[in-house]
Amino acid sequence: MKKEKLPKVGVGAVILDENNRILLVLRKKSPESGYWSLPGGKVDYMETIENAVIREIKEELGVDIEIERLVCVTNHIVQSEDVHYVAPTFIAHITNGKVHNKEPHALEQVQWFPIDDIPENITITTDYALKQLK
């Protein structure tokens, strides 16, 4: 009997600083390896999406965040990689800590970009969230 494939849930955060720069991470792993992405990750069983994004940002970047609001939910489907995520994305701000790459096995770089001058190679979820912010 073949195991049924189901979508997964991933969360992300649009984090802006006082200079209107956005924090992006360069992915080393699938899905969309080699693309700039909003920081975030997977939701654990019995975890709320809000708690998941707060935990994931702390694990990846070593900072505490406060969620301001939900920006959008993306249908992150990459057929060529056999990946299907439903991805709520929040806008948040850093409340404590200094950003650094705590997951170098998964993230090539962590960098601030002017919101109107971001790289072209961005993930589906990042692209959709930025369009919803405008």
UniProtKB/TrEMBL annotation:
Record-linked Pfam families:
NUDIX (PF00293)
Q: Which InterPro entries match?
A: Nudix_hydrolase (IPR020476), NUDIX_hydrolase-like_dom_sf (IPR015797), NUDIX_hydrolase_CS (IPR020084), NUDIX_hydrolase_dom (IPR000086)
Question: Which coenzyme or cofactor does it need?
Answer: Mg(2+)
Recorded hits in Gene3D superfamilies, A to Z, give: Nucleoside Triphosphate Pyrophosphohydrolase (3.90.79.10)
Q: Name one GO molecular function term.
A: 8-oxo-7,8-dihydrodeoxyguanosine triphosphate pyrophosphatase activity
Enzyme Commission numbers on file = 3.6.1.55
Q: Which residues form the Nudix hydrolase domain?
A: 6-134
Which domain of life does the protein's organism represent?
Answer: Bacteria
Keywords carried by this UniProt record:
Hydrolase
SUPFAM superfamilies in UniProt: Nudix
Q: Which family does it belong to?
A: Belongs to the Nudix hydrolase family.
**Can you name this protein?**
8-oxo-dGTP diphosphatase
- What organism is the protein native to? Lysinibacillus parviboronicapiens
Its ancestry begins with: Bacteria, Bacillati, Bacillota, Bacilli, Bacillales
